[in-house]
Amino acid sequence: MIVRAQLTHLCLTCGLTLFVCLGCSTAPGRPTVDSIPVDPDNVAGFSLLFQQNCSGCHGAEGNHGPALAIGDPVYLTVADDAILRKVITDGVAGTSMPAFAQSAGGMLTAKQIGVLVDGIRQRWGRPDTLAGVSPPPYSAAEPGDAERGAAVFEAFCAGCHGPEGKGTGRGSSIVDGTFLALVTDQELRTLTIVGRPDLGAPDWRNNVPGRPMSSQEISDVVAWLAAQRPKLAGRPSPHATSLAGEKP
Question: Which of 85, 195, 74 is nearest to 135 (CA)?
Fold first, then answer.
């Protein structure tokens, strides 16, 4: 009887203790599992990393953002993983693309950048996108010629962007000083090759039906566009008589 009583007492004690513990887990003010902050260095999911670091400029699905559509399969065929990693790691100096790597002053670890590179490729890359096609190289082998580039622009680009590149109802101004001040020659080359299909701008094969642009023609038109870039970034007030920093 004594042993049975002791066992009964022990069971009641354990049950009461468990009840109290369960009650405490939902006590007011006690943090829930999902409310405990996560160490930013330990965020490892592609979707969250892309949403927090990339979607603001490149769009929630890698397109329809103000910046290059990195979810475009043509872009992902032309730009390899080394290019993606370098751009994410170091950014692009003089443009709106910042460095994201901790080693370059950003917030992401090398592992997280690897997650982004792999995730972008896996989600939007299509290896057969340019099957049977030899795309122009991502980087130019030889510098372009601005004088030749003017004729190239007239042949391939003026139909949408206007004879002087100042825009039409079919395409925006491509010589806007503010735009050109915020993009590098490489970005101009990439945009010429890849286009912005998400915004209605074709890639290098379809500016003139049946007449894709050659790599040299792309280099030449980039040289012409670069020649339109203002010496000083930005645009003065229409009422100003001089650029900021200049003496009247």
Answer: 74
Domains and CATH numbers, the chain: 42-124 (1.10.760.10), 146-227 (1.10.760.10)
- Provide the CA 13 distance to its chain's centre, in angstroms: 60
| Residues contacting residue 75 through CB under 8 Å, at least 6 positions apart | 68, 69, 190, 194
Please determine, for residue 2, whether its predicted confidence score (pLDDT) is greater than 70.
no
pTM (predicted TM-score): 0.78
Three-state DSSP at 136 gives coil
Residue with structure tokens 């915020």?
182
- Band of pLDDT at residue 50, cut at 50, 70 and 90: very high
Q: Whole-angstrom Cα distance, residue 172 to residue 246?
A: 30
Give residue-wise pLDDT tens across range 133-182: 999 999 998 899 999 999 999 999 999 999 999 999 999 999 999 999 99
Give the position of tokens 């160490």.
39
Is residue 108 within 8 Å of 98, Cβ to Cβ?
Answer: no
Residue 50: CA count within 13 A, CB half-sphere: 22
Rounded Cα distance, 34 and 122, in Å: 28
- DSSP annotation of 137: P
Distance between CA atoms of residues 160 and 63, nearest Å: 21
One-letter amino acid for residue 58 of the chain: H
Cα gap 79→184, rounded to integer Å: 16
Q: Return the axis-axis angle of helices 185-194 and 215-227, rounded to nearest 10°.
A: 130
Residue 191's nearest CA partner among 168, 207, 178 is 207
Backbone angles phi, psi at 246, to 5 degrees: -90, 145
